[in-house]
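Input/output pair, single chain:
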Amino acid sequence: MAMLISEPFVEILMATYQGGRWLDVQLASIFAQDYSNWRLLIRDDGSTDDTRNIIRFWRDRFPDKIHVLDEQSIETLGLVGNFSALMGVNSSDYTLFADQDDVWYRDKVSRAVAAISALEAQHERGRPLLISGDLRMVDQNLRQLQPSVLKYRGMKAINRPGISGLFLENVVYGCTLIANRPLITRSTPIPKEGLYVDWWLALVATAFGTVENRREVNLDWRRHGTNTSSLPSLSDTIIGLWKPLRHRRQFHSKLAVNQAIVQAFLDRYGDHLSNQDRGAARAFLNLQSLGFAERRYALFRYRLWFSSWIRNAGLLLLI
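Output:
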């Protein structure tokens, strides 16, 4: 008789807030997965709609599959704090992150586990690993808006990106990614200044492990007007090239947000970074204090670039 190989244990983290309109469909797509060895960890951040009732309904039907964290709590932690709390109790081999309003494809978990298992086999034990994918953008009724978000945004699925490239833009989407145990351990807790869970995980994985970005689409990413994230398009960037003065203030405002994330990362991990990565982080934080030529020299020296040439052209105009 052939020996059965057990599936690695996976935990799916879901931070909910006012998601009652969409939550049933997302939960149904998770329960329809062709992978069986998973558990869903949910924490609600003080919803006043029927989100908590929906969570209780599903938990009562599947008590072995759903664990609700801080069920009676009314404390609001915000999106990053909510996910960070879930990461703090997460104990699985591999971890996925679920938005409350998406729809997962039936083989999302199985394909993610197969990919990260293969990546782990290529590296030494204990190396932080992250794999992310692409998304199909849909409207509130699941009608396709864009078949590929990465293509729509003019972004490349760069494997093993340098950390300096992550200072200007986040190249991973949290709802597509899978992380191994060493990455979750090293990344937790996420400081409130981290601002974005997926960005923080990508920075940690790039600095101390490996990031692999793929073009695979594994879910429908629902955009309905009340999402917590925004989506600048490639056309927005092109328009910015021709109106640099109009967009310079907006650019520097966004740059300040990125610098706050990098500062938090440097505060946490600075002593453990390579000299090159630490120098790149400090150069990025000090860009505004440099002269015209010095700023551009820093961009080239530390490879502080976007993933597309169009955005890099705009960067040279606006910086």
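The radius of gyration is 20 Å. Residues 244-269 form the longest helix (26 residues).
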